[in-house]
Every structure is written in structure tokens, then in C-alpha cells.
């Protein structure tokens, strides 16, 4: 099976003094559903950031969707990000845009025409049960609703890779279930690789998944 | 309301810089026009023992435009009583020649000094009357006026640059989040900064349009025209094509420069 992520002796850090991830080697198959767990401060989010190039490897190599992220050029990084859907813990919605425009963002960046963009956004708004709120601004929505918008945005351009950082943290059961359903749907129907950083793996999940655990800067697969 | 607020701060800063620049231009034009009017009314008088050649005088001193001989008749008329016609003719011949020199522009004190020295090199010229005292006073007044306006324009310029620098920081904070989010989804720099440049261009257009309306009104105002007429000069307060073009160019350059600084200074979030 093709590997979408290959990390070899990968080290990550924010400063010279402290290494968060220390010489880890792992790979993730294309089209798989992966959970990364670990205690708070273990480096889960740091590892996720490195996967979309927000944090460069200080040592070793990290290849995501065929792009080596050590010393990656801006244009290659932009290309990788265009094919990646990211769900952030703090949603990262553009405050001055309506939720409809927020969902459109990856489609605009990828250069889709207006008709396709509108249809895709309408369909996603229905999926996340926010069709009636399309003209609202993020601050007018609850945390759960904002996370659903962030999820719709991450899926809007049918990405090959979906990265989600604690997508259901602090959400009610209804919103959490909706988000897991969307992630499962993207994995099963779009064949997207889904990588979720979380504290708890939901029991209701129907897809086969892999589980990596981070501890003391190392990563190991949990069987 | 929010949209208006977004535009207002940069528009005000741009408008104040356009206002100070156009004011400076008007003062420059007024001084030039006033100098021309002074030059028309100002002339030197030279006294020569012999008849001077106009061509040779002009060729030696390029500032001189024309040389007119002053007739001694008025002086002779006053002495006329009891003097025989023959003696009057003799008196005419023995009197020195007086000439009025017209200059191409209103000269500076240095130019007058150089001209005087140059004229006196000709042995036949015995006296050059420059009316130096009144000339000096007028010239110094002009220079003072120009200096005051330059200081005023410079002060407004400095305040405006500070305003724009402050605006730069506000814009950096305001646009940073959106630009960072767009970068996380792979937006190229031009797309990330498109909103910023659009805003900058719209603000430059608004500021230029407001300045256009303001100066069009000022230039057509009767009171303003009367003031220029009082001092005997004609000044183009606002040229609707050239001046507006300059204003638009300056506003566009400043606002796009501001946007460029923000784009260059933008650091991606980690």
C-alpha cells in the first residue's frame, strides 16, 4: 500500500533547548484512519503541525504526500496544503467572513469555479446541519457549530489528507457524533487519509483504524 | 458602520497628506506668480557716461531682458526757465545717459550683487541703482513665507507618516489572522494579500476623490480668488487633471506601500 506519510528519525522542537519529538520513525498508509493519542504536552499537536508544514523538522526526514518537508519551498508547501484539510482545536475561522465564505476558502484557493463552489458548500452546510445559518458570522455560533463549520471547510475540497486536532474536545454529544460521521464518511467515500489527534478514541466508530501513542517524545503503534 | 470604520483611519491619514502636499503646491505657485509680478515691476537703473549698446549688455548679462534709455527731458524741463535753447542742447550732451534694465525674473540679492559687479566692469557705467533696500525686504518676506509653509507641510507630513505607521500596526493585527488561516490552506501570497491591496486601493481612491472635491470647491470659491486678485497674481489653485493625477498617484503609492509592508512583515503562526 502507498504511504502518505513517512517519517524517519524525525525530531521536532520549538527551541534549541527542548526537543518535543525525538528521532521517531513511522509511516502511515494512504487511505487509512489513524488516531494519535498521548498525555497533554506529549507532542501530539506538535507532530500534527509538522504534517502540514507549520513546524519544520530539526532532524531526520518527513515526507507527506510525496513532499519532503525538511527545507520545503513555499510553492511546494502551498501545493501540499491545497490537498490537505485541517481541523484546528481553536477552529481558526475567519471572523470577518460568513460561515459560507469560510467553508469556501479551500475551494477559492484551489481555483474552483463559482458554480461548483456554491453546490459543494450548500451540500456541506446540509451535512453539518447549518444550512439555515449560512449567512452568519463565526461569533454568532456556538463552539460546537463553529467546529462543524471548520469540519465542513476541511472537507470542502475533497482533500487526500485530513488532519484533525482534538476535533471533538469540549463538544456536546450531538456535535461530536456529527463530526465523527463526517470523518468516517470522508475516509470511506473519498478515500481520504484521516489523522486525528485526540485524548479519547470514540467507541461508536465503524471504520478500521490505526492507533499511535506518543510518550516521552517517542511514538509507538498500539495494537 | 464597521466597513466605514475600516476605511476611515487610512482615508483620513491619506487625505491629510494630500491636503498638505496640495497646499504646498499652491504656495509654490503663488510665490512663483508673485515673483513674476515683482519681476515685471522691478527694474534697475544704470547711469553711463556714454551711450550703451543694448545687445552687448544683454549678451554679457543673461538676466537682462531689455534696456530702455530714460529721456532727460523731464529734468531739463525743470531747469528750463531762463536757459537758452542752444545751452539746453549743450546741457543735454553733457548729461550722463540713464537706462532702465528689465530682468528676466525677480533676482536674489546674490544675483543683484553679481549683476552690479558685472555692469560696473564697464568703465563707462558710473552708477547702478538696484533699489536694494526695498528689494531685500520683499525677497526676505517671500523666503520667510516659503519657509513657514515648508515647515508646516513638513510637520503635517511627519504627523501623517506617524498616523500611517500606527495604521500599519492596526492593519497588521487585523489582517494577520485571516492571512495566517489562508496560508494554512495553501493560499499563495498574492491571494492572501488581495483583500489588503483591495482595501488599500479603495482607500486611496476615496481619499483622492475627497481631496478632489475639497480642492475643486476651494479653487472655485470667490473669496479665495479675491485674495489672489488683491495681491495682483493669478494662480491655478487646483488643476483638475494634473493635480488630481499627482494626488491619486501619491495616495496609491502610499497605501500600496503600506499594504506591501504588511505582507512583507507577515509571519506565519506556528
Describe this structure in words.
The complex is a heterodimer of chains A (223) and B (270). Helices cover 33% and strands 27% of the residues of chain A. Chain A has 223 residues and is an alpha/beta fold. In chain A, the strands form 2 sheets. A 6-stranded mixed beta sheet of chain A has the order 6-7-8-3-9-10, sandwiched between helices. Chain A has a 4-stranded antiparallel beta sheet with strand order 2-1-4-5, covered by helices on one side. In chain A, a hairpin with a 5-residue loop joins β1 (3-13) and β2. In chain A, α3 packs across α4 (114-127), α3 packs parallel to α5 and α4 (114-127) packs across α5. The radius of gyration of chain A is 17 Å and the shape is globular. Chain B is of the alpha+beta class and 270 residues long. Chain B folds into 2 domains: 2-37 and 138-269, no CATH class; 43-130, 2-Layer Sandwich (Alpha-Beta Plaits). Helix content of chain B is 71%, strand content 9%. Chain B is built from 10 helices and 4 strands, in the order αβαβααβαβααααα. Chain B has helices at 2-41, 54-60, 73-79, 85-94, 109-120, 132-184, 189-192, 194-220, 222-230, 242-265; strands at residues 43-48, 64-70, 97-103, 125-129. Chain B has a 4-stranded antiparallel beta sheet with strand order 2-3-1-4. The interface between A and B is medium-sized, with 26 and 16 residues.
Stretches of chain A where pLDDT falls below 50 for ≥5 residues? none
- For the terminal residues of chain B, how far apart are their CA atoms? 33 Å
> Numbering strands along the chain, what is their spatial order in the largest sheet of chain A?
6-7-8-3-9-10
Give helix % range of chain A.
25-40%
Shape of chain B: elongated
Count of helical regions of chain A: 6
> How many individual helices of chain B?
10
Q: How large is the share of residues in beta strands of chain A?
A: 25-35%
Q: What series of H and E elements makes up the topology of chain B?
A: HEHEHHEHEHHHHH
End-to-end gap of chain A: 19 Å
Helix and strand pattern of chain A? EEEHEEHEHHHEHEEE
What is the global morphology of chain A?
Answer: globular
Quaternary organisation of the protein chains: heterodimer
Number of strands of chain A: 10
Greatest contact pair?
A: A-B, 26 and 16 residues
Strand arrangement across the biggest beta sheet of chain B: 2-3-1-4
Q: What composes the largest sheet of chain B?
A: 4 strands, antiparallel
The domain count of chain B comes to 2
- As a whole number of angstroms, the C-alpha radius of gyration of chain B is 30 Å
Structural class of chain B: alpha+beta
Amino acid at each position: 500500500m502507498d504511504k502518505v506519510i513517512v517519517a524517519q528519525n524525525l525530531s521536532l522542537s520549538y527551541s534549541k533547548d527542548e526537543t518535543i519529538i525525538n528521532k521517531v520513525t513511522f509511516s502511515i498508509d494512504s487511505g487509512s484512519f489513524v488516531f494519535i493519542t498521548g498525555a497533554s504536552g506529549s507532542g501530539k499537536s506538535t507532530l500534527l503541525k509538522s504534517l502540514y508544514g507549520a513546524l519544520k523538522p530539526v532532524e531526520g526526514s518527513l515526507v507527506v504526500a510525496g513532499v519532503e518537508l525538511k527545507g520545503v519551498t513555499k510553492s511546494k508547501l502551498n501545493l501540499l496544503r491545497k490537498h490537505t484539510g485541517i481541523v484546528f482545536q481553536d477552529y481558526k475561522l475567519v471572523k470577518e467572513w460568513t460561515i459560507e465564505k469560510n467553508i469556501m476558502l479551500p475551494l477559492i484557493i484551489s481555483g474552483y469555479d463559482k458554480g461548483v463552489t456554491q453546490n459543494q458548500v450548500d451540500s456541506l452546510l446540509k451535512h453539518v446541519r447549518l444550512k439555515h445559518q449560512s449567512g452568519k458570522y463565526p461569533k454568532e455560533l456556538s463552539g460546537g457549530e463553529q467546529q462543524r463549520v471548520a469540519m465542513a471547510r476541511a472537507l470542502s475540497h475533497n482533500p487526500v489528507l485530513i488532519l484533525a486536532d482534538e476535533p471533538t474536545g469540549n463538544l456536546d454529544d450531538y456535535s461530536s457524533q456529527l463530526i465523527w460521521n463526517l470523518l468516517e464518511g470522508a475516509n470511506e467515500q473519498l478515500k481520504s487519509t484521516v489523522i486525528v489527534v485526540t485524548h479519547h478514541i470514540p467507541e461508536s466508530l465503524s471504520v478500521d483504524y490505526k492507533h499511535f501513542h506518543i510518550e516521552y517524545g517517542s511514538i509507538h503503534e498500539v495494537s | 458602520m464597521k466597513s466605514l470604520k475600516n476605511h476611515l483611519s487610512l482615508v483620513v491619514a491619506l487625505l491629510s497628506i494630500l491636503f498638505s502636499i496640495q497646499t504646498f503646491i499652491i504656495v509654490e505657485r503663488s510665490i512663483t506668480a508673485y515673483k513674476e509680478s515683482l519681476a515685471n515691476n522691478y527694474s534697475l537703473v544704470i547711469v553711463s557716461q556714454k551711450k550703451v549698446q543694448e545687445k552687448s549688455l544683454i549678451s554679457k548679462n543673461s538676466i537682462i531682458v531689455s534696456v530702455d534709455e530714460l529721456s532727460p527731458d523731464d529734468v531739463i524741463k525743470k531747469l528750463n526757465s531762463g536757459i537758452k535753447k542752444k545751452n539746453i542742447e549743450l546741457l543735454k550732451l553733457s548729461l550722463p545717459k540713464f537706462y532702465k534694465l528689465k530682468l528676466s525674473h525677480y533676482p536674489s540679492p546674490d544675483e543683484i550683487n553679481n549683476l552690479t559687479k558685472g555692469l560696473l566692469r564697464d568703465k563707462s557705467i558710473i552708477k547702478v541703482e538696484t533699489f536694494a533696500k526695498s528689494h531685500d525686504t520683499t525677497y526676505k518676506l517671500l523666503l520667510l513665507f516659503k519657509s513657514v509653509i515648508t515647515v508646516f507641510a513638513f510637520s503635517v507630513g511627519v504627523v501623517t507618516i506617524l498616523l500611517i505607521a500606527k495604521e500599519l500596526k492596526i492593519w497588521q493585527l487585523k489582517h494577520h489572522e485571516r492571512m495566517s488561516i489562508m496560508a494554512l490552506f495553501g493560499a499563495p501570497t498574492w491571494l492572501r494579500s488581495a483583500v489588503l491591496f483591495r482595501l488599500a486601493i479603495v482607500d486611496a481612491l476615496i481619499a483622492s476623490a475627497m481631496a478632489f472635491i475639497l480642492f475643486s470647491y476651494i479653487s472655485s470659491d470667490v473669496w479665495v480668488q479675491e485674495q489672489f486678485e488683491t495681491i495682483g497674481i493669478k494662480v491655478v489653485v487646483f488643476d483638475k487633471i494634473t493635480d488630481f493625477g499627482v494626488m491619486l498617484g501619491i495616495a496609491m503609492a502610499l497605501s500600496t506601500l503600506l499594504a506591501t509592508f504588511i505582507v512583507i512583515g507577515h509571519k506565519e503562526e506556528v
